[in-house]
Write a structure and sequence with these properties.
Length: about 260
């Protein structure tokens, strides 16, 4: 036998114990993992004792998470968190859900709600959020004190959870976003937002017999002009009845 053949035989004898060791480690690991799985799946230590819901501001627990009590008593590892989050996300009032385990026995459900920004007048007052999603009514509370929008047609079929996509709806959402950006306190004074095919958007103010004609589009710039003019008029202690911003770079004031 040559020296080269001897070296090959020695390497083969060295590799064989290593391979056997790797296989044994793998088998032991599988056995331990199987035993650990059986233990965690049956141990009383990992029984769900508390379901903690965070993030709710407007909605009630029973409306947003109606089946949370059904989780109590189950093994915490047997709860499918992805399925739980997906089911809760079907509620139109929910923007996002994240469910996590807090060992040994707590499931935490983090919810981000959709916040209403206006009430649309469709015979009954219906809430919409800042993205135009139609929110279902809540039995536990009255509609919030928000501007009432008229002139938007409801979508066909079941309206709840649907997003308003008409030109009129997009115009109102653009306006609400502009108000939140330029003059957030103004929204508290707005009683009604009317979408008119000829005049665009007309605001009726709650604290006085005032109307603001905003026309169509460019709402941010118009609100900046309006804020400046209102400040100047307030210094003169005069109360206008109409602000008309339908003309480019102008604010027409009527007393």
């Amino acid at each position: 036998m040559s020296a080269q053949q001897s070296r090959r035989g020695a390497r083969s004898r060295d590799i064989l114990p290593l391979a056997v060791g790797v296989v044994l480690i793998f088998i032991v690991g599988m056995v331990l993992a199987s035993g650990l799985h059986r233990w965690t799946s049956s141990a009383a230590l990992f029984t769900v004792e508390d379901v903690r819901v965070t993030g709710l501001i407007v909605g009630g627990y029973d409306e947003i998470v109606p089946n949370r009590d059904e989780l109590v008593g189950r093994n915490i590892f047997a709860v499918d968190l992805d399925s739980l989050s997906a089911n809760l996300s079907t509620n139109p009032r929910v923007r996002n859900v994240q469910a996590v385990r807090r060992l040994p026995g707590t499931i935490e459900i983090r919810i981000a709600e959709r916040s209403p920004v206006a009430l649309v007048n469709w015979g009954a007052l219906v809430e919409i959020d800042g993205e135009g999603t139609v929110l279902p009514p809540q039995a536990t509370r009255l509609p919030p004190d928000l501007p009432i929008v008229s002139g938007i047609q409801p979508p066909p079929g079941d309206i709840y959870g649907r997003r308003l996509e008409s030109n009129e709806a997009e115009m109102v959402l653009d306006l609400l976003h502009a108000i939140a950006t330029v003059e957030p306190l103004l929204i508290e004074r707005v009683s009604e937002i009317v979408v008119d095919g000829e005049r665009g958007i007309v605001l009726t103010m709650a604290d006085a017999d005032q109307h603001i004609y905003l026309g169509m589009g460019n709402f941010r710039q118009k609100l900046l002009h309006l804020t400046r003019v209102v400040r100047e008029i307030s210094e003169r202690r005069r109360r206008p009845r109409v602000f008309d911003l339908r003309f480019r770079d102008q604010v027409v004031v009527r007393f």
